[in-house]
Write a structure and sequence with these properties.
Elements: E1 3-6, H1 8-16, H2 21-30, E2 35-38, H3 40-54, H4 58-71, E3 72-74, H5 91-99, E4 104-106, H6 110-113, E5 117-118, E6 121-124, H7 126-132
Helix pairs in contact: 1-2, 1-3
């Protein structure tokens, strides 16, 4: 089964926009068609964005976290890397993919997409990933 890491922007789209392609991808995980890998670092960033930009209250954030930890493989990368020169904050996505032995990273972030692949992990848009399934 395909192992994939979603960038934070994919989670935000999946959770906040019901008819989005990222939502369909998340549903594929819920239907056990994909193995989704997440890290505490990605979860923390997602919680912050949902709280600040979308006004999620703590109870709703906890429900989101419970849902994701129930359907995802959670890894906690210990090795830090420096790959995304333009935005070091994006390195946590690659760290998660390496730790979780992912096949793909799905992102809408041009800094990650411009890399294309790293150590055998393909970095693609939601559309490219959907079309590859």
């Amino acid at each position: 089964m395909v192992r994939v890491v979603f960038d934070t922007n994919i989670y935000i789209s999946a959770l906040h926009f019901k008819s989005s392609l990222p939502r369909k991808l998340l549903e594929s995980v819920e239907n056990e068609e994909l193995h989704l890998i997440i890290s505490p670092q990605i979860m923390a960033e997602m919680r912050g964005v949902l709280r600040v930009k979308f006004g999620y209250i703590p109870n709703k954030l906890n429900l989101v976290e419970e849902l994701l930890t129930s359907i995802c493989i959670v890894v906690d990368p210990q090795k830090r890397i420096r790959v995304v020169i333009e935005d070091a904050d994006d390195d946590k996505i690659i760290e998660c993919a390496i730790e979780g032995d992912a096949d793909f990273i799905v992102s809408g972030d041009r800094h990650l997409l411009n890399i294309g692949s790293y150590k055998g992990v393909k970095i693609v848009s939601a559309r490219e990933f959907w079309e590859s399934l």
